[in-house]
Amino acid sequence: MTKVLDIDDARGMRHCETTALGVLLRHQGVDLSEPMLFGLGSGLSFVYWDAKNMGFPFLGGRVKPFELTRNLATRLGLELLVQETTSPRRAWEHASAAVDAGHPVGLQLDSYYLDYFTSRVHFGGHVVAMYGYDDHDAHLVDTDQQGGAVSTSLTSLAQARAARGPMTAKHRSFTLTAPQSPPSPHGRIVPAITACAEAFLNPPIANLGHRGIEKAGKLVRTWLQRTDVPQRDLPRAALLMEKAGTGGALFRNLYRDFLAECTQLHDSSHLRTGHTLYTEAATLWTEVAALLTKAGESGDAQCLAQAGTVLCDLSRIEREAMQALSRLGE
């Protein structure tokens, strides 16, 4: 078996991309909390996604896959080596070469094919860290809820990496290298927060940012008519918001905890306001998920009306939070 030494498991991490980043960075001697990784990567966002080929709308709470990694690498002055290919053979050579050289490697893939996943749903934006392999299996680190240090067959890994569809990449693998004297993460907090706030406050289309949350508040009221199986689709939407690697509350728990960590490092009334408002927002997102579940189980449209009202409140609360946070750079 070929294995990278001194690899930590998921350490209770809840989101796939920050889990993999944590593994790669700790191996480079950079040890940051999961909320700090998420926040420095300007990971928070919102999207209301309802394409023609989708069976049911999707509420997303973060930037698109891998954007967080690129943001974090730029912000911390890390060397990010990304390799992509349409060849499965070359893809394995890329990944295994990193492990052979003693480095864990990040892989973006479709989690549906991984042996250890018990809930099989196609998600092409899943990210894991590979730290070893043998003749039959690849040894990975995934989120805590997926088992932390896990294994999957080389065949299943190849299928997951070769998958095509929404959010997939062409056998993407990546490594991170820290400079001898990396910049202090503390000094990069304000640019990370203000960049995130700017994108959230000024989305290019109405499906994104605070405008997207407001749109969701209007459209969620119609969701019982949007599906033939509400008892399946509405609870599933709620589950994705709370349990599917979001850290709860559609990533708002992670951003709340990031802001809390920042208040210990920066004395700013704007920062404290943002933290207070995102603490409120996180609670309300969990309330929305509960209302969606109840609506699916009961068929009661009033639950969706209540969810819509809460979402409209959330659009305002998060807009006010981001307006305060945008002033950090002044």
UniProtKB/TrEMBL annotation:
InterPro entries membership: BtrH_N, DUF4872
Pfam families in the record: BtrH_N (PF14399), DUF4872 (PF16169)
Stretches assigned to the DUF4872 domain: 156-325
Domain Butirosin biosynthesis protein H N-terminal span(s) in chain numbering: 15-143
Entry protein name: BtrH N-terminal domain-containing protein
Organism in which the protein naturally occurs: Streptomyces sirii
Lineage: Bacteria, Bacillati, Actinomycetota, Actinomycetes, Kitasatosporales
